[in-house]
Amino acid sequence: MKHIFYGFVFIFILVGCHSLNISAKNVSGYNNGIAVVQKSDEDSKIQVEVGQGSIGGAGKTPLLLYVMVENLKEEKIIFDTNNVFIKIGDTEIYPMSFERLKYSNIDFRDALYDYGIESNIDVKINEPYFSPSVYRPLFYPIILDNRVFLAYRFYDYPFSNNGYYQARIKKANEILVSRYLRKNTLEKNSAKGGFVAFSYSDINRALKKFQNSTPIVMVKVGNKSYSFDINIYQKKKKRL
């Protein structure tokens, strides 16, 4: 039974920790380690930033891109998450909507950290980790053979961390919401940008279906579409 248990644990780790490497192609430059890819013509300027080195893992970290557009035309244009998608084969993967992001419980801490954005929260610790008062016994009576005994249970420290963990996820979500791409009207020479998040599961599913296809980030500005090739591939397993 012990071997079977560890076998299940090992399989869970292999499945849950599956990751994909990310890298940008045709990089125009770097900003604090973040790859910047730019394209421009007489109508617009587009910039896509790729800060992550990998996505997925145990938390299924999404792909986070920063997209900025400048309108150079006299005509006004609308730009939002509907103008950005990833094309793999004949599959088009659109980013999470702003409304979905607001109410999601997805862990974006690692993704934001890759862009130099920390999501730490201030925590006041009233008791040290190994303080006897932390492990003070909480008792309640148990009646056994007409006698009353005091049964003890102790404070479970790991469970006390769960609130802190959830608070950090919520903080990261709030940060991303404040910087996420929303609907904007761009007049001539005006620019707007924001983060867009793509589901790791959707990307991984499309890559398995179209194994020989190169993922392409598509950005639609007005009547034109601009393509940005990116590398998304499975990490090679290390030999023991």
Structural commentary:
By secondary structure, this protein is of the alpha+beta class. It contains five helices and 15 strands. The chain has a six-stranded antiparallel β-sheet, covered by helices on one side. It has a five-stranded antiparallel β-sheet with strand order 2-3-4-6-13. A hairpin with a 3-residue loop joins strand 3 (34-40) and strand 4.
Quickly list its features.
240 residues, alpha+beta, six-stranded antiparallel β-sheet, 5 helices, globular
Q: How do you describe this structure in short?
A:
Helix content is 24%, strand content 38%. It has helices at 2-16, 98-102, 109-113, 157-178, 200-209; strands spanning 19-24, 29-31, 34-40, 44-50, 54-56, 63-71, 77-79, 84-88, 91-93, 137-144, 147-154, 184-186, 191-198, 216-221, 224-234. A six-stranded antiparallel beta sheet has the order 5-1-15-14-8-9, with helices on one face. A five-stranded antiparallel beta sheet has the order 2-3-4-6-13. A two-stranded antiparallel ribbon has the order 7-12.
